[in-house]
DNA sequence: TGTATATAACTGTCCAGTCAGTTATATACT
DNA sequence: AGTATATAACTGACTGGACAGTTATATACA
């Protein structure tokens, strides 16, 4: 070993120390921020801890993001785009056979909702919604509104096609989505054990009730 | 102007200034705290502002509550007790005629969910759940778990009585409750316009689909 | 006079954001 | 190739303000 005066740790790390070009940094910082925000909440999360998690100094974070709030906004933006597209595409593809599409969706969506990693940003958005209504609204418009809208369109297509009787498509859509939201709230926010451990069975049970409720030959409830 | 050194406001208020006995204070402070917590979030809410809203000095608040966190806990406690009782009682009463009870519940619950005042504490709990899991868990156990449990029991009673076919009662319960949670999340947390402006009609549409789905003569979906 | 109720003023700590300076990589020039 | 210069990536140390919680003091009333 050459008689270098540098500390040993530097020798070990020095190979990769500056090789990392800036391109990857923002994402690393955002991941760190998400973890800290979820663990401590937006206000209680410290920029220094976020930086440390991203293996950076606090000042380093400010080279990429103007402020703590900018970090939050970038975080939501990053997740919003892909989800919205995926959801709408999936549902548009199902218009040909709405019944099959609903069956597929119910299982697929339940799997999504059970995954803590995928639920991280929604959780964050909900927790900060009171303080930053613009962020919450953006999320609602880009994600929730699209999802419910697509689902409603799918059921409306089923009604037009004669697969379902003429119920309020929006209400039916929310009878599919609502229980999923409830499950997500329960598990990931209120910290409960899964309400429905068997994803496939639960999805099947739900779709069974829903499809029977939508059946063309069912007689509508008399409104007393 | 008389050469009094006291500020004028004191003279005006002094008549009633000390008359207020301690009994009412805690509630006033809790109401003020709830408002501030909802407006700014738990961390950003300032004890001084809470005190001012309750027409007290900051130190005054500390005569009744030990800390900011104690305020939060007291707030949740205050709301938890009555709600849990009311909900279970309502549902137990309906076991004789589950169908009628579900119809009633759907409309009643939709009205509840539409009321911002009643949704204030749930909103707060959700927003702080990440930071204070014990509070969230307590709320889940005392309120959400009881509500879902009662609803499930009601539907199970309907199945036993022959009003409904033998579906998974828990799933059916969540198909009633889920859309309500979705509506609440939408309106009160994500700041959307009401998804369903006409409460009665929406409740009717939902119960129509659900009851048809539960009908004893419906044929169960084949699970492919 | 004593006790309960209240407050103004204070203290100690915490942390977002800044800045002056350092180290690694890239480029220009010989 | 080697050396000088520029610039990108990064950091340690600091500041200024905010705010939870405390203390010393005042008022009301029995």
Descriptive overview:
The structure is a homodimer of 224-residue chains. The first copy, chain A, is mostly helical and 224 residues long. Chain A folds into two domains: 8-64, Homeodomain-like (Arc Repressor Mutant, subunit A, Orthogonal Bundle), CATH 1.10.10.60; 77-214, Tetracycline Repressor, domain 2. In chain A, 70% of the residues lie in helices and 0% in strands. The first copy, chain A, is built from ten helices and no strands. In chain A, helix 2 (25-40) packs across helix 3 (47-53), helix 7 (116-128) packs across helix 9 (169-189) and helix 8 (133-161) packs across helix 9 (169-189). The longest helix of chain A is centred in the middle third of the chain and has 29 residues, at 133-161. The model of chain A is unreliable at 1-19 (pLDDT under 50). Chain A binds a DNA duplex (30 and 30 nucleotides) through helix 4.
Condensed summary:
Chain A is mostly helical.
For the record, the count of structural domains of chain A works out to 2
**Shape, per Cα inertia axes of chain A:** elongated
Classified by CATH, the class of the largest domain in chain A is: Mainly Alpha
Question: Can you give the helix content of chain A as a percent range?
Answer: over 70%
- End-to-end distance of chain A: 90 Å
**Fold-level CATH name of the largest domain in chain A:** Tetracycline Repressor, domain 2
SSE order of chain A, as H and E?
Answer: HHHHHHHHHH
Mean pLDDT of chain A: 88
**Which two chains touch over the largest interface?**
A-B, 65 and 66 residues
Rg of chain A, Cα atoms, Å:
23 Å
β-strand percent of chain A reads: under 5%
Largest sheet of chain A: none
């Amino acid at each position: 070993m050459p008689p270098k005066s540098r500390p040993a740790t530097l020798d070990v790390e020095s190979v990769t120390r500056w090789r990392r070009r800036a391109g990857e940094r923002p994402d690393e910082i955002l991941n760190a921020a998400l973890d800290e925000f979820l663990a401590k909440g937006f206000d209680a999360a410290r920029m220094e801890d976020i930086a440390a998690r991203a293996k950076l100094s606090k000042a380093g974070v400010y080279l990429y993001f103007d402020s703590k709030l900018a970090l939050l906004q970038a975080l939501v933006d990053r997740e919003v785009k892909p989800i919205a597209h995926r959801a709408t595409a999936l549902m548009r593809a199902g218009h040909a056979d709405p019944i099959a599409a609903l069956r597929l969706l119910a299982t697929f969506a339940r799997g999504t909702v059970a995954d803590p990693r995928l639920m991280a940003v929604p959780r964050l958005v909900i927790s900060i919604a009171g303080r930053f209504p613009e962020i919450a609204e953006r999320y609602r418009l880009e994600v929730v509104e699209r999802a419910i809208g697509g689902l409603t369109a799918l059921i409306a297509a089923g009604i037009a096609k004669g697969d379902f009787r003429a119920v309020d498509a929006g209400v039916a859509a929310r009878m599919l989505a609502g229980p999923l939201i409830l499950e997500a709230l329960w598990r990931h926010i209120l910290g409960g054990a899964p309400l429905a451990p068997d994803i496939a069975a639960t999805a099947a049970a739900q779709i069974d009730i829903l499809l029977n409720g939508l059946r063309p030959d069912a007689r509508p409830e008399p409104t007393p």
